Amino acid sequence: MRFYERQFITREDMNHDALARFERLLDDYLYLGTAAKEGIPTVKYFADKICLSPNYFGDLVKQETGKTAQEYIQLKMITIAKERMLDSAGTIKQIAESLGFQHPQHFVRFFKRQGGCTPKEFRNRMTVS
């Protein structure tokens, strides 16, 4: 276990490169419409793209960011969802589909769990402010 954890320290530059690639891939996935075609982004998808095992990739992300890879993806998704809710006149259904959700109800549940309120409540709060 010590050897496994030590490799994150000794490969610091490589880890930063992998994390930067992950960031770019995640941005592309969510901003360029891949999510609408492929569905909600998964840790396995990004691990495969970076040529790492999902477990090792998850450990690397956790070591570098303090968040699990899944938490990191979800945080990015909620940030983009909030941006889209404020910047566009798109419906909640359109925003949900653009982020890879097949059903708007799943997006609403995800948004409420991550953001503390429903998308409609968030939009109403922001337009009133």
Describe the structure.
This protein has 129 residues and is mostly helical. The chain has helices at 2-10, 12-31, 34-38, 43-50, 54-65, 69-87, 92-98, 104-115, 119-128. The protein is elongated. The protein starts with a helix and ends with a helix. The model has no long low-confidence stretch (mean pLDDT 89).
In short:
Helix content is 79%, strand content 0%. The protein contains 9 helices and no strands.
Task: Give a quick set of tags describing it.
79% helix; elongated; 129 residues; mainly alpha; 9 helices
Mean pLDDT, nearest integer?
89
Mind describing the biggest β-sheet?
Answer: none
User: What is the H/E string?
Assistant: HHHHHHHHH
Note the total helix count.
9
User: How much beta, percentage-wise?
Assistant: under 5%
Distance between the termini: 51 Å
Shape: elongated
Alpha carbon gyration radius? 16 Å
Low-confidence parts lasting 5 or more residues at pLDDT below 50?
none
Total count of strands: 0
- Portion in helices: over 70%
Q: What is the SS-derived class? A: mainly alpha
Secondary-structure topology with pairs:
Elements lengths: L1 H9 L1 H20 L2 H5 L4 H8 L3 H12 L3 H19 L4 H7 L5 H12 L3 H10 L1
